[in-house]
Amino acid sequence: MTAQAGARVAKEPDSEATDARKADRAARRTFRSRRVRPALAGALLMTAAGVLTAIEVISTALGHPAHVFPYGWVRDAHWDSWYVLAIFAALALIGVCFVLAAVLPGKSRIVPLHGQDPSLLMGVSKRGLKRTVAAAAGGAPGVSDVRRVRLGRRRVRVVAETPVREPAGLDAEVTEAVRDRLDRLGPVPARTVQVRMKHREP
């Protein structure tokens, strides 16, 4: 029984790490941008094309073509004509764009947060994360104002102001304050911190 208990204890860290990785993957999938607008535009275009095609086919079958599409030139067109190839290339390019829009992730407004439970997902808005970073940088000693916070996928850039003429080492303190706040918050993926200090007279 002692050996069994010891084996279970030894596996607990691995189990927690596995759950954490699952939680991070689930959070990324959940907060991933769904690209609603491109999907809606594609659906509307396909619906309109289908309706117009149906009108043309039905009207032609009834003996009164509606001539929605100017397809008279098709009779004299050749498959190797430049304009025919250009039309097919344009249609293929549009199709590739829609496929890429559906497959590639978009820019989400929510940043997933690191968790331990795959069934409990948390996130923070990009604006909220920027405000958190700005508050952490602004609370560091010697910082009078935070001019700009840029949030990248792997990096956070902070531009802060200080009345100190020679702020030697001040950027390292601000970097540490921001990094500590990010470590406690746990955004996914983890981001490095880059701070630039600018002197400004009080």
UniProtKB/TrEMBL annotation:
Keywords carried by this UniProt record: Membrane, Transmembrane, Transmembrane helix
Protein name from the UniProt record: DUF6286 domain-containing protein
Top-level taxon in the UniProt lineage: Bacteria
Segments passing through the bilayer: 39-62, 82-104
Signal peptide per UniProt: none
Annotated ranges, domain DUF6286: 93-197
Ranges of biased composition (kind: Basic and acidic residues): 9-25
Organism: Actinomadura chokoriensis
